[in-house]
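Figure 3 (text version): structure tokens given as input.
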């Protein structure tokens, strides 16, 4: 999955969702408004993220910022796709680069 990003004059960014990890809430190809001033986790929500220590792999040969819904489950931070077919997984907020938080979708 890759995510395209554009910057309008307002200062917020619009990121295009690629893939179905957030269906049915955010559809593939849908544009999501991101507040780029949010660069730290500040509560559950959808964030534009990347991994701090990115290592290229055959499936991910280059950095690809992603929309990721972050939420606490049983006291631990998880990446929780809206799509019920895709499993959630535990993340460490210190391993993430946060490029903004969704303010509209």
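Below: residues designed for each position.
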């Amino acid at each position: 999955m890759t995510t395209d990003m554009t910057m309008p004059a307002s200062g917020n960014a619009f990121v295009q969702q690629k893939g179905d990890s957030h269906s049915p809430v955010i559809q593939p190809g849908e544009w999501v408004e991101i507040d780029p001033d949010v660069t730290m986790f500040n509560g559950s929500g959808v964030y534009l993220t990347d991994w701090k220590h990115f290592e290229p792999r055959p499936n991910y040969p280059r950095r690809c910022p992603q929309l990721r819904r972050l939420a606490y489950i049983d006291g631990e931070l998880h990446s929780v796709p809206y799509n019920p077919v895709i499993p959630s997984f535990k993340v460490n907020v210190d391993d993430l680069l946060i490029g903004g938080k969704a303010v509209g979708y």
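Residues 4-104 form a domain with the Umud Fragment, subunit A fold (CATH 2.10.109.10).
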